[in-house]
Amino acid sequence: MDKVTVVITTYKRKEEFRKALISVINQTYDNIEIIVVDDNIENTYIVYVQQILEKYDNVKYIKNKKNLGGALSRNVGLKASTGKYIAFLDDDDVYFDKKIENQVKCFEESDVCNLGIVYCHTEAVDVYENILEKYEKNVRGDFLLENMLGTIAATTQWLCLKSAVEQVGGFKDVPSKQDTTLLLDLAMAGYRIDVVPQILTKYYELDIERISGVSEKNLKGELLLRDYMRRIYNRFDYKNIRTVEYNIDFRIYYLQIRLGKYKEAFQTLKLLYKTHINRLNVLIIIIKHPFRRFRKERLK
């Protein structure tokens, strides 16, 4: 039975972290190495995490010397891991009991060549465990274009071949979209993807930023992602490039409007108008958004 490493990164969450940890301990797959990377700098949270871990002598604990953020904390866990496979778990997400078992089985039985990652379906829930949304994409094989059109699966849904993640250098230190970026790196390196079509994880919509997706951090991440994707457009025909460009420009435009960046939003809107095949849809976008301030920017 091949060893699987699960890296749990934690920052400023108490009860949620405990739930995440227990969900890994309760896995039906036996050969699991658990690594907790503590990114807290406040002593209250550090003490809590350490008190929880005192109950479990089979958990490797790593305390960052300074706050590194999610991407670099995952890389810390990656470097310390000893498993053939590696999975990542944020401290506000949980695994269902058969998550690792079913994904390892998929790795062993899949007919997809050069398989580097297996993901599963997931669901979003609120604090009362009410299901808000389910995410059930089914992509197999080459996934570069699909991932450029929109993230196939978030980090918690993955089980990766550790050597594949190491080959591409792990997670990039970007403000957001770390999952999309790493998936692009894996696809560019020639790795393929497979899916276990079952909901095996869930994540909690706990804070406003995560629910809305609206923040300066998310906008900066989308802009960096667009720059990265534009460097690999030579792999696609013009129609696919237009579709990818429209999708990401729309997300950027939405964030700019929500953040009150009307001047920048107008420039993005012009890109949307150029790239969308049905320009009537772009006019509908304009009608749906409050544009009094936006129109003033246009006149400057």
Automatic annotation (TrEMBL):
Keywords: Transferase. GO terms for molecular function: hexosyltransferase activity. The keyword Ribosomal protein does not apply. This is Glycosyltransferase family 2 protein. InterPro entries: Glyco_trans_2-like (IPR001173), Nucleotide-diphossugar_trans (IPR029044). It comes from the Bacteria. Residues 5-168 form the Glycosyltransferase 2-like domain. The keyword Cytoplasm does not apply.
